[in-house]
Amino acid sequence: MAEPTCVIIGGGPAGMMLGLLLARAGVRVEVLEQHGDFLRDFRGDTVHPSTLRLLDELGLGRRFEELPHSRLDEVRWPVDANRSVVLADLRRLRQPHPYIAMVPQWDLLNLLADAARQEPSFTLRMDTEVTGLIQASGRVLGVRYRTSDGTTGELPAALTVACDGRRSIAHTDARLRPREFRVPMDAWWLRLPRLPQDSTALTPRAAPGQLAVVIPRAGYLQIAYLAEKGADQRLRAAGIESFRRDLAALMPELAGRLGALASMDDVKHLDVRLNRLQRWHTDGLLCIGDAAHAMSPVGGVGINLAVQDAVAAATLLAGPLRHGTPPPATLAAVRARRLLPTVAVQTLQRLLHRGLIDPTLAGRRTGPPAAVLALLRRFPRLAVVPAYLIGVGIRSEHAPWFARGYSLTSGEGHDRQNDDVKELMMKAKVGDRIIEEGTHVGDHRRVGVVTALRHDDGTPPYEVHWLDTGNDALVFPGGDARVEPGKPG
Protein backbone atom coordinates (compact mmCIF):
# COMPACT_ATOMS: atom_id res chain seq x y z
CA MET A 1 0.00 0.00 0.00
CA ALA A 2 1.29 3.48 -0.88
CA GLU A 3 2.20 5.78 1.97
CA PRO A 4 -0.52 8.30 2.79
CA THR A 5 -0.11 11.93 1.89
CA CYS A 6 -1.97 12.89 5.09
CA VAL A 7 -2.21 11.09 8.43
CA ILE A 8 -5.00 12.13 10.81
CA ILE A 9 -4.63 11.37 14.52
CA GLY A 10 -8.02 10.63 16.04
CA GLY A 11 -11.31 9.41 14.61
CA GLY A 12 -13.60 11.93 16.28
CA PRO A 13 -15.88 14.36 14.42
CA ALA A 14 -13.02 16.56 13.19
CA GLY A 15 -10.82 13.65 12.14
CA MET A 16 -13.53 11.70 10.34
CA MET A 17 -14.91 14.77 8.56
CA LEU A 18 -11.45 15.85 7.41
CA GLY A 19 -10.64 12.32 6.27
CA LEU A 20 -13.84 12.12 4.22
CA LEU A 21 -13.34 15.51 2.57
CA LEU A 22 -9.70 14.94 1.67
CA ALA A 23 -10.47 11.48 0.33
CA ARG A 24 -13.16 12.93 -1.93
CA ALA A 25 -10.47 15.24 -3.29
CA GLY A 26 -8.33 12.22 -4.14
CA VAL A 27 -5.79 12.77 -1.35
CA ARG A 28 -4.33 9.56 0.12
CA VAL A 29 -5.40 9.85 3.74
CA GLU A 30 -5.29 7.53 6.76
CA VAL A 31 -7.19 8.10 10.01
CA LEU A 32 -5.74 6.42 13.10
CA GLU A 33 -8.20 5.78 15.96
CA GLN A 34 -6.92 4.20 19.16
CA HIS A 35 -10.20 2.47 20.08
CA GLY A 36 -11.75 -0.54 18.40
CA ASP A 37 -15.08 1.23 17.86
CA PHE A 38 -16.72 4.62 18.36
CA LEU A 39 -18.85 3.54 21.34
CA ARG A 40 -18.13 6.04 24.11
CA ASP A 41 -20.90 7.34 26.37
CA PHE A 42 -21.49 11.01 27.18
CA ARG A 43 -19.51 12.32 24.26
CA GLY A 44 -20.95 15.39 22.60
CA ASP A 45 -24.08 14.32 20.75
CA THR A 46 -25.25 17.65 19.33
CA VAL A 47 -25.41 18.16 15.57
CA HIS A 48 -26.13 21.81 14.90
CA PRO A 49 -28.00 23.42 11.98
CA SER A 50 -24.79 24.38 10.19
CA THR A 51 -23.51 20.80 10.44
CA LEU A 52 -26.86 19.43 9.25
CA ARG A 53 -26.62 21.75 6.23
CA LEU A 54 -23.09 20.48 5.63
CA LEU A 55 -24.29 16.87 5.65
CA ASP A 56 -26.87 17.82 3.02
CA GLU A 57 -24.16 19.37 0.88
CA LEU A 58 -22.10 16.19 1.18
CA GLY A 59 -25.03 14.10 0.01
CA LEU A 60 -25.41 12.46 3.44
CA GLY A 61 -28.55 14.21 4.62
CA ARG A 62 -30.95 11.38 3.89
CA ARG A 63 -28.76 8.80 5.62
CA PHE A 64 -28.43 11.04 8.66
CA GLU A 65 -32.21 11.42 8.85
CA GLU A 66 -32.47 7.64 9.09
CA LEU A 67 -30.40 7.59 12.29
CA PRO A 68 -32.34 7.50 15.57
CA HIS A 69 -32.29 11.03 16.94
CA SER A 70 -34.29 13.66 18.77
CA ARG A 71 -34.57 17.38 18.05
CA LEU A 72 -34.09 20.48 20.18
CA ASP A 73 -35.49 23.73 18.85
CA GLU A 74 -35.54 25.98 21.93
CA VAL A 75 -33.84 26.68 25.24
CA ARG A 76 -36.20 27.66 28.07
CA TRP A 77 -35.34 29.14 31.47
CA PRO A 78 -37.99 28.37 34.13
CA VAL A 79 -39.07 31.52 35.96
CA ASP A 80 -41.39 29.70 38.37
CA ALA A 81 -43.49 26.53 38.45
CA ASN A 82 -45.79 27.80 35.70
CA ARG A 83 -43.75 30.19 33.56
CA SER A 84 -40.59 30.04 31.50
CA VAL A 85 -38.72 32.34 29.13
CA VAL A 86 -37.35 31.22 25.76
CA LEU A 87 -33.65 32.10 25.80
CA ALA A 88 -32.85 30.70 22.35
CA ASP A 89 -35.41 29.94 19.64
CA LEU A 90 -33.89 27.92 16.83
CA ARG A 91 -37.24 27.77 15.05
CA ARG A 92 -36.65 31.37 13.98
CA LEU A 93 -33.44 30.50 12.13
CA ARG A 94 -33.51 30.78 8.36
CA GLN A 95 -31.79 27.44 7.94
CA PRO A 96 -32.78 24.21 6.18
CA HIS A 97 -32.75 22.51 9.59
CA PRO A 98 -33.79 25.00 12.32
CA TYR A 99 -33.03 22.68 15.22
CA ILE A 100 -30.23 20.80 16.95
CA ALA A 101 -30.28 17.06 16.29
CA MET A 102 -29.35 14.91 19.27
CA VAL A 103 -27.79 11.74 17.93
CA PRO A 104 -25.33 9.30 19.54
CA GLN A 105 -21.92 10.42 18.38
CA TRP A 106 -20.94 6.88 17.40
CA ASP A 107 -23.79 6.84 14.87
CA LEU A 108 -22.54 10.07 13.29
CA LEU A 109 -18.96 8.80 13.19
CA ASN A 110 -20.00 5.50 11.64
CA LEU A 111 -21.96 7.44 9.00
CA LEU A 112 -18.88 9.50 8.10
CA ALA A 113 -16.65 6.43 8.15
CA ASP A 114 -18.97 4.49 5.83
CA ALA A 115 -19.04 7.40 3.39
CA ALA A 116 -15.25 7.78 3.50
CA ARG A 117 -14.68 4.06 2.89
CA GLN A 118 -16.26 4.49 -0.53
CA GLU A 119 -13.20 6.49 -1.55
CA PRO A 120 -10.24 4.46 -2.84
CA SER A 121 -7.74 6.86 -1.25
CA PHE A 122 -9.16 6.53 2.30
CA THR A 123 -8.02 4.17 5.06
CA LEU A 124 -9.32 3.95 8.64
CA ARG A 125 -7.15 2.09 11.15
CA MET A 126 -9.00 1.20 14.34
CA ASP A 127 -7.23 -0.07 17.49
CA THR A 128 -4.23 2.01 16.47
CA GLU A 129 -2.80 4.39 19.05
CA VAL A 130 -0.39 7.11 17.99
CA THR A 131 2.52 7.01 20.43
CA GLY A 132 4.70 9.75 19.01
CA LEU A 133 5.59 12.00 16.10
CA ILE A 134 8.37 11.29 13.63
CA GLN A 135 10.50 14.44 13.57
CA ALA A 136 13.70 15.52 11.87
CA SER A 137 15.29 18.94 11.43
CA GLY A 138 12.31 20.68 13.03
CA ARG A 139 9.75 19.05 10.74
CA VAL A 140 7.07 16.46 11.52
CA LEU A 141 7.37 13.60 9.03
CA GLY A 142 4.58 11.28 10.24
CA VAL A 143 3.65 9.24 13.31
CA ARG A 144 4.68 6.24 15.37
CA TYR A 145 1.89 3.91 16.38
CA ARG A 146 1.02 0.81 18.38
CA THR A 147 -1.89 -1.51 17.64
CA SER A 148 -4.00 -3.38 20.20
CA ASP A 149 -1.98 -6.58 19.66
CA GLY A 150 1.26 -4.79 20.51
CA THR A 151 2.51 -4.29 16.96
CA THR A 152 4.46 -1.07 16.54
CA GLY A 153 5.37 0.85 13.44
CA GLU A 154 5.92 4.16 11.71
CA LEU A 155 3.70 5.88 9.16
CA PRO A 156 5.40 8.66 7.18
CA ALA A 157 3.24 11.40 5.66
CA ALA A 158 3.58 14.78 4.01
CA LEU A 159 1.15 16.21 6.58
CA THR A 160 0.02 15.05 10.01
CA VAL A 161 -3.21 16.52 11.40
CA ALA A 162 -3.84 16.20 15.14
CA CYS A 163 -7.55 15.70 15.87
CA ASP A 164 -6.93 13.83 19.12
CA GLY A 165 -8.56 16.21 21.56
CA ARG A 166 -7.49 18.45 24.38
CA ARG A 167 -4.73 16.09 25.53
CA SER A 168 -3.25 15.91 22.06
CA ILE A 169 0.11 14.28 21.57
CA ALA A 170 1.01 17.38 19.56
CA HIS A 171 1.01 19.43 22.77
CA THR A 172 3.86 17.37 24.19
CA ASP A 173 5.81 16.03 21.21
CA ALA A 174 5.62 19.19 19.09
CA ARG A 175 5.71 21.52 22.10
CA LEU A 176 2.57 23.36 21.11
CA ARG A 177 1.38 24.61 24.49
CA PRO A 178 -2.18 25.89 24.91
CA ARG A 179 -3.07 29.01 26.84
CA GLU A 180 -5.40 27.97 29.65
CA PHE A 181 -8.38 30.10 30.72
CA ARG A 182 -9.94 29.84 34.15
CA VAL A 183 -13.17 27.86 34.39
CA PRO A 184 -15.28 27.86 37.58
CA MET A 185 -16.95 24.48 37.19
CA ASP A 186 -16.77 20.85 36.22
CA ALA A 187 -19.63 18.82 34.76
CA TRP A 188 -21.15 15.47 35.72
CA TRP A 189 -23.23 13.57 33.17
CA LEU A 190 -26.06 11.19 34.01
CA ARG A 191 -29.23 9.68 32.56
CA LEU A 192 -32.75 9.55 33.97
CA PRO A 193 -35.94 8.01 32.57
CA ARG A 194 -38.02 10.24 30.31
CA LEU A 195 -41.81 10.43 30.54
CA PRO A 196 -44.21 11.42 27.72
CA GLN A 197 -45.22 14.64 29.49
CA ASP A 198 -41.64 15.92 29.84
CA SER A 199 -40.73 19.14 28.08
CA THR A 200 -39.08 18.86 24.68
CA ALA A 201 -37.01 22.01 25.33
CA LEU A 202 -33.52 22.12 26.72
CA THR A 203 -34.09 23.45 30.23
CA PRO A 204 -31.45 24.82 32.62
CA ARG A 205 -32.10 24.70 36.37
CA ALA A 206 -30.29 26.77 39.00
CA ALA A 207 -30.09 27.01 42.78
CA PRO A 208 -27.46 28.56 45.05
CA GLY A 209 -24.31 26.50 44.64
CA GLN A 210 -25.43 24.27 41.77
CA LEU A 211 -26.67 24.23 38.19
CA ALA A 212 -28.06 21.59 35.88
CA VAL A 213 -29.18 21.36 32.27
CA VAL A 214 -31.93 18.90 31.31
CA ILE A 215 -31.57 17.66 27.73
CA PRO A 216 -34.45 15.59 26.33
CA ARG A 217 -33.19 12.62 24.33
CA ALA A 218 -34.93 9.77 22.54
CA GLY A 219 -36.15 7.60 25.43
CA TYR A 220 -34.30 9.30 28.30
CA LEU A 221 -33.22 12.59 29.84
CA GLN A 222 -29.56 13.51 29.72
CA ILE A 223 -28.54 15.70 32.64
CA ALA A 224 -25.47 17.89 32.88
CA TYR A 225 -24.90 18.75 36.54
CA LEU A 226 -22.49 21.62 37.25
CA ALA A 227 -20.67 22.27 40.51
CA GLU A 228 -17.46 24.03 41.52
CA LYS A 229 -14.29 22.88 39.81
CA GLY A 230 -12.46 20.13 41.65
CA ALA A 231 -15.58 18.86 43.45
CA ASP A 232 -15.51 15.34 42.03
CA GLN A 233 -13.69 13.78 44.97
CA ARG A 234 -16.04 15.51 47.44
CA LEU A 235 -19.16 14.38 45.59
CA ARG A 236 -18.00 10.78 45.31
CA ALA A 237 -16.94 10.65 48.95
CA ALA A 238 -20.40 11.90 49.99
CA GLY A 239 -21.98 9.05 48.02
CA ILE A 240 -24.98 8.50 45.80
CA GLU A 241 -27.62 9.28 48.45
CA SER A 242 -26.19 12.74 49.02
CA PHE A 243 -25.96 13.30 45.27
CA ARG A 244 -29.60 12.28 44.82
CA ARG A 245 -30.64 14.75 47.53
CA ASP A 246 -28.79 17.57 45.78
CA LEU A 247 -30.48 16.72 42.49
CA ALA A 248 -33.92 16.43 44.11
CA ALA A 249 -33.55 19.87 45.67
CA LEU A 250 -32.51 21.35 42.33
CA MET A 251 -35.06 19.49 40.18
CA PRO A 252 -37.93 18.34 42.44
CA GLU A 253 -40.03 17.24 39.47
CA LEU A 254 -37.43 14.53 38.78
CA ALA A 255 -37.05 13.35 42.38
CA GLY A 256 -39.08 10.20 41.78
CA ARG A 257 -36.73 9.04 39.03
CA LEU A 258 -33.42 9.41 40.86
CA GLY A 259 -33.51 5.78 41.92
CA ALA A 260 -32.24 5.06 38.40
CA LEU A 261 -28.84 6.18 39.70
CA ALA A 262 -27.62 3.02 41.44
CA SER A 263 -24.20 4.39 42.40
CA MET A 264 -21.76 7.16 41.59
CA ASP A 265 -20.49 4.90 38.80
CA ASP A 266 -23.59 6.06 36.90
CA VAL A 267 -22.31 9.65 37.11
CA LYS A 268 -19.52 10.52 34.67
CA HIS A 269 -17.17 13.38 35.49
CA LEU A 270 -15.96 15.86 32.86
CA ASP A 271 -12.92 17.93 33.79
CA VAL A 272 -13.92 21.14 32.01
CA ARG A 273 -11.11 22.98 30.29
CA LEU A 274 -11.03 26.09 28.14
CA ASN A 275 -7.85 26.75 26.22
CA ARG A 276 -6.40 27.72 22.88
CA LEU A 277 -3.11 27.18 21.09
CA GLN A 278 -1.27 30.33 20.11
CA ARG A 279 0.05 28.48 17.06
CA TRP A 280 -1.97 25.64 15.51
CA HIS A 281 0.85 24.26 13.37
CA THR A 282 4.47 23.49 12.99
CA ASP A 283 6.17 22.37 9.80
CA GLY A 284 4.39 19.18 8.73
CA LEU A 285 1.79 19.25 11.54
CA LEU A 286 -1.60 20.94 12.01
CA CYS A 287 -3.92 20.88 15.04
CA ILE A 288 -7.69 21.39 14.72
CA GLY A 289 -10.74 20.87 16.90
CA ASP A 290 -10.14 20.32 20.61
CA ALA A 291 -6.46 19.74 19.88
CA ALA A 292 -6.29 23.43 18.91
CA HIS A 293 -8.95 24.83 21.25
CA ALA A 294 -10.72 23.02 24.09
CA MET A 295 -14.19 24.45 24.61
CA SER A 296 -16.44 24.72 27.64
CA PRO A 297 -19.63 22.62 27.41
CA VAL A 298 -21.64 25.86 27.68
CA GLY A 299 -23.69 26.06 24.49
CA GLY A 300 -22.66 22.59 23.35
CA VAL A 301 -20.72 24.06 20.43
CA GLY A 302 -17.46 22.13 20.65
CA ILE A 303 -18.35 19.49 18.05
CA ASN A 304 -19.75 22.08 15.67
CA LEU A 305 -16.54 24.12 15.84
CA ALA A 306 -14.41 21.01 15.35
CA VAL A 307 -16.36 20.03 12.23
CA GLN A 308 -16.09 23.58 10.88
CA ASP A 309 -12.32 23.45 11.44
CA ALA A 310 -12.18 20.24 9.42
CA VAL A 311 -14.11 21.77 6.51
CA ALA A 312 -11.89 24.85 6.45
CA ALA A 313 -8.76 22.69 6.62
CA ALA A 314 -9.93 20.48 3.76
CA THR A 315 -10.86 23.48 1.61
CA LEU A 316 -7.45 25.07 2.12
CA LEU A 317 -5.28 21.94 2.07
CA ALA A 318 -6.77 19.61 -0.55
CA GLY A 319 -5.14 21.39 -3.48
CA PRO A 320 -1.66 21.67 -1.93
CA LEU A 321 -1.83 18.03 -0.74
CA ARG A 322 -2.66 16.80 -4.25
CA HIS A 323 0.21 18.91 -5.51
CA GLY A 324 2.77 17.96 -2.84
CA THR A 325 3.45 19.13 0.70
CA PRO A 326 1.56 22.13 2.11
CA PRO A 327 3.97 24.88 3.17
CA PRO A 328 3.74 26.30 6.71
CA ALA A 329 2.01 29.41 5.37
CA THR A 330 -0.88 27.28 4.12
CA LEU A 331 -1.16 25.55 7.50
CA ALA A 332 -1.19 28.96 9.16
CA ALA A 333 -4.07 29.96 6.87
CA VAL A 334 -6.30 27.38 8.58
CA ARG A 335 -5.83 29.12 11.92
CA ALA A 336 -6.36 32.51 10.28
CA ARG A 337 -9.63 31.27 8.83
CA ARG A 338 -10.92 29.73 12.07
CA LEU A 339 -9.49 32.05 14.73
CA LEU A 340 -12.35 34.59 14.77
CA PRO A 341 -15.14 32.06 15.45
CA THR A 342 -12.98 30.28 18.02
CA VAL A 343 -12.13 33.44 19.94
CA ALA A 344 -15.71 34.72 19.70
CA VAL A 345 -17.19 31.54 21.17
CA GLN A 346 -14.57 31.27 23.90
CA THR A 347 -15.07 34.92 24.83
CA LEU A 348 -18.82 34.39 25.10
CA GLN A 349 -18.28 31.27 27.19
CA ARG A 350 -15.94 33.14 29.53
CA LEU A 351 -18.52 35.91 29.92
CA LEU A 352 -21.18 33.33 30.83
CA HIS A 353 -18.77 31.71 33.26
CA ARG A 354 -18.16 35.03 35.01
CA GLY A 355 -21.65 36.48 34.76
CA LEU A 356 -23.84 33.43 35.43
CA ILE A 357 -22.09 30.20 36.39
CA ASP A 358 -19.50 31.59 38.81
CA PRO A 359 -21.98 33.71 40.84
CA THR A 360 -24.56 30.90 40.85
CA LEU A 361 -22.08 28.35 42.18
CA ALA A 362 -20.97 30.92 44.75
CA GLY A 363 -24.60 31.39 45.87
CA ARG A 364 -24.91 34.98 44.63
CA ARG A 365 -27.29 34.34 41.71
CA THR A 366 -29.85 31.78 40.59
CA GLY A 367 -30.32 32.68 36.95
CA PRO A 368 -29.75 35.24 34.21
CA PRO A 369 -30.21 38.91 35.12
CA ALA A 370 -33.87 39.84 35.54
CA ALA A 371 -33.50 42.59 32.92
CA VAL A 372 -32.42 40.02 30.31
CA LEU A 373 -35.39 37.77 31.05
CA ALA A 374 -37.77 40.75 30.94
CA LEU A 375 -36.34 41.87 27.59
CA LEU A 376 -36.80 38.41 26.07
CA ARG A 377 -40.36 38.19 27.40
CA ARG A 378 -41.20 41.57 25.85
CA PHE A 379 -39.36 40.96 22.56
CA PRO A 380 -39.37 37.19 21.95
CA ARG A 381 -37.87 37.60 18.48
CA LEU A 382 -34.58 38.50 20.15
CA ALA A 383 -34.24 34.81 21.06
CA VAL A 384 -33.03 34.23 17.50
CA VAL A 385 -29.71 35.94 18.35
CA PRO A 386 -28.44 33.33 20.84
CA ALA A 387 -30.03 30.67 18.63
CA TYR A 388 -27.88 31.82 15.72
CA LEU A 389 -24.71 31.95 17.81
CA ILE A 390 -25.35 28.42 19.10
CA GLY A 391 -26.79 26.80 16.00
CA VAL A 392 -24.94 28.44 13.12
CA GLY A 393 -22.12 30.50 14.52
CA ILE A 394 -19.73 33.01 13.05
CA ARG A 395 -18.22 32.13 9.68
CA SER A 396 -19.86 28.75 9.32
CA GLU A 397 -18.28 26.68 6.56
CA HIS A 398 -19.86 25.17 3.47
CA ALA A 399 -18.73 21.92 1.90
CA PRO A 400 -15.97 22.53 -0.65
CA TRP A 401 -17.01 21.96 -4.23
CA PHE A 402 -14.85 18.88 -4.67
CA ALA A 403 -16.69 17.03 -1.89
CA ARG A 404 -20.29 17.93 -2.70
CA GLY A 405 -22.34 14.83 -3.16
CA TYR A 406 -19.98 12.86 -5.39
CA SER A 407 -16.37 11.77 -5.63
CA LEU A 408 -13.86 13.17 -8.10
CA THR A 409 -11.80 9.98 -7.80
CA SER A 410 -14.39 7.23 -7.95
CA GLY A 411 -17.09 9.12 -9.83
CA GLU A 412 -19.65 7.34 -7.68
CA GLY A 413 -22.71 9.03 -6.24
CA HIS A 414 -23.13 9.30 -2.50
CA ASP A 415 -26.83 10.03 -2.23
CA ARG A 416 -30.01 10.86 -4.10
CA GLN A 417 -28.63 14.39 -4.63
CA ASN A 418 -25.78 13.10 -6.79
CA ASP A 419 -27.09 13.95 -10.26
CA ASP A 420 -28.52 17.31 -9.20
CA VAL A 421 -25.33 18.33 -7.43
CA LYS A 422 -23.20 17.35 -10.41
CA GLU A 423 -25.32 19.59 -12.63
CA LEU A 424 -24.92 22.47 -10.18
CA MET A 425 -21.17 22.03 -9.72
CA MET A 426 -18.96 24.99 -10.45
CA LYS A 427 -17.64 24.68 -14.00
CA ALA A 428 -15.02 26.69 -15.81
CA LYS A 429 -12.95 26.72 -18.97
CA VAL A 430 -9.46 27.93 -19.69
CA GLY A 431 -9.41 31.72 -19.63
CA ASP A 432 -12.28 32.11 -17.16
CA ARG A 433 -11.75 34.12 -14.02
CA ILE A 434 -12.08 32.66 -10.52
CA ILE A 435 -13.17 35.27 -7.98
CA GLU A 436 -12.86 34.35 -4.32
CA GLU A 437 -14.30 36.35 -1.45
CA GLY A 438 -12.58 35.39 1.79
CA THR A 439 -11.18 31.93 1.11
CA HIS A 440 -7.42 31.76 1.81
CA VAL A 441 -7.02 35.52 2.11
CA GLY A 442 -8.62 36.78 5.30
CA ASP A 443 -11.91 38.03 3.93
CA HIS A 444 -10.80 40.14 1.00
CA ARG A 445 -11.30 39.62 -2.71
CA ARG A 446 -8.83 38.06 -5.10
CA VAL A 447 -8.99 37.16 -8.77
CA GLY A 448 -7.26 34.46 -10.77
CA VAL A 449 -7.31 33.16 -14.35
CA VAL A 450 -7.87 29.48 -15.14
CA THR A 451 -4.84 28.28 -17.09
CA ALA A 452 -5.58 24.53 -17.26
CA LEU A 453 -8.31 22.01 -16.40
CA ARG A 454 -7.90 18.67 -14.65
CA HIS A 455 -11.34 17.39 -15.71
CA ASP A 456 -12.81 17.60 -19.20
CA ASP A 457 -16.25 18.55 -17.84
CA GLY A 458 -14.84 21.77 -16.35
CA THR A 459 -15.33 20.83 -12.70
CA PRO A 460 -12.63 21.61 -10.11
CA PRO A 461 -9.74 21.49 -9.50
CA TYR A 462 -8.23 24.13 -11.79
CA GLU A 463 -4.75 25.38 -12.48
CA VAL A 464 -5.08 29.08 -11.65
CA HIS A 465 -2.76 32.06 -12.05
CA TRP A 466 -3.50 34.56 -9.25
CA LEU A 467 -3.32 38.12 -10.52
CA ASP A 468 -2.59 39.72 -7.15
CA THR A 469 0.47 37.61 -6.30
CA GLY A 470 1.56 36.23 -9.67
CA ASN A 471 1.51 32.71 -8.19
CA ASP A 472 0.27 29.60 -9.95
CA ALA A 473 -1.67 27.02 -7.91
CA LEU A 474 -3.96 24.03 -8.13
CA VAL A 475 -7.25 25.35 -6.76
CA PHE A 476 -10.44 23.80 -5.41
CA PRO A 477 -12.69 26.88 -5.17
CA GLY A 478 -14.70 27.01 -1.95
CA GLY A 479 -18.33 27.94 -1.43
CA ASP A 480 -17.51 31.65 -1.45
CA ALA A 481 -16.06 31.61 -4.99
CA ARG A 482 -17.59 32.20 -8.41
CA VAL A 483 -16.63 31.89 -12.06
CA GLU A 484 -16.82 34.72 -14.58
CA PRO A 485 -16.43 33.94 -18.29
CA GLY A 486 -13.18 35.03 -19.87
CA LYS A 487 -13.20 37.61 -22.63
CA PRO A 488 -13.23 36.12 -26.14
CA GLY A 489 -9.86 36.11 -27.77
TrEMBL record:
The keyword Plastid does not apply. Residues 6-338 form the FAD-binding domain. It holds the Pfam family DUF1918. This is Oxidoreductase. It comes from the Bacteria. NCBIfam families: PRK06185.1-1, PRK06185.1-3. Gene3D superfamilies: Domain of unknown function DUF1918, FAD/NAD(P)-binding domain. The keyword DNA-binding does not apply. One of its GO terms (molecular function) is oxidoreductase activity. Keywords: Oxidoreductase. Residues 426-483 form the DUF1918 domain. InterPro entries: DUF1918 (IPR015035), FAD-bd (IPR002938), FAD/NAD-bd_sf (IPR036188), PheA/TfdB_FAD_monoxygenase (IPR050631).
